[in-house]
Automatic annotation (TrEMBL):
Organism: Pseudothioclava arenosa
Protein family membership: Belongs to the ABC transporter superfamily. Macrolide exporter (TC 3.A.1.122) family.
InterPro entries assigned to the protein according to its UniProt record, in alphabetical order: AAA+_ATPase, ABC_transporter-like_ATP-bd, ABC_transporter-like_CS, ABC_transpr_LolD-like, MacB-like_ATP-bd, P-loop_NTPase
Coiled coil: none
Record protein name field: ABC transporter
Length: 232
């Protein structure tokens, strides 16, 4: 695969929680580069630092030390370099969590268009984009339905549509297939791979789901806050 733009550049990032006797070193001098088109998995035992690393890339958790660049823009260097982190996340990052993260009182379409409302787009633009994405993900016919009436696979596609609404090039997913059977899990992963290729995005997924390991370009193992292997 041709290497695309460098979208995630994590340099010498460490993170500890607490101090003194209660100090936990969640990440120790982690370096990670992810390019456009790549779909990678973060693996490792419970407590190894996967969620912390995902949340640092997602600008939700501040590193203790190190540098982070996203899509060519330095965003953290000892401190956040942008005042408005919410806007930074809206501009650059799409988050896919497990399907139950959809807002229950909104329809499938509204769950997607709400992201564009937050970004200041008109309702008409939000609605059109939501329709386009739901159609692309083959759940357009479910647009008027509330999440409680969607199947697990449909709800996950809506969650993916929502993550993509703002055309982010960095897509972060936390256990995106945990609630799906093997066939659905592989379909979701194939869809994510297609999206990464077509939209020149990268996808970083925390997963324990062995049935999808063959769908990743790289499996990155964390142990005690260190990357064990960043190879293919
Ligand atoms: N907000 C916090 N305050 C204190 N300690 C934390 C906090 N968040 C995480 N930790 C600790 O940091 C370490 C790494 O946690 P993290 O959630 O990143 O691991 P993980 O690999 O995602 O685990 P899991 O697979 O169980 O979700 C753990 O020891 C955890 O207890």
């Amino acid at each position: 695969m041709a290497i695309g733009d460098l979208l995630i550049d994590v340099q010498q990032v460490a993170k500890h929680y607490g101090e003194g006797e209660t100090r936990v070193d969640a990440l120790r001098e982690v370096n990670l580069q992810v390019h456009a088109g790549e779909v990678i998995a973060l693996l490792g035992p419970s407590g190894s630092g996967k969620t912390t690393l995902l949340n640092i890339i997602g600008c939700i958790v501040a590193p203790s030390t190190g540098r982070v660049e996203l899509d060519g823009e330095p965003v953290f260097d000892g401190h956040w370099l942008r005042g408005d982190l919410r806007k930074l996340r809206l501009d650059k990052i799409g988050f896919i969590f497990q399907a139950h993260n959809l807002l229950p009182f909104l329809t499938a379409e509204e769950n997607v268009s709400v992201v564009l409302d937050l970004a200041g787009q008109s309702q008409a633009v939000g609605k059109a984009r939501a329709r386009e994405l739901l159609d692309y993900l083959e759940v357009g016919h479910r647009a008027p339905v509330k999440p409680s009436h969607l199947s697990g696979g449909e709800a996950q596609r809506v969650a993916i549509a929502r993550a993509l609404a703002n055309r982010p090039r960095i897509i972060l997913a936390d256990e995106p297939t945990a609630a799906l059977d093997s066939k659905r899990a592989q379909l979701v992963m194939d869809l994510l791979r297609k999206l990464a290729a077509e939209q020149e995005a990268c996808i970083v997924t925390v997963t324990h789901d062995e049935k999808i390991f063959d769908r990743f370009d790289r499996l990155i193992h964390l142990r005690d806050g260190r990357l064990e292997d960043a190879g293919a």
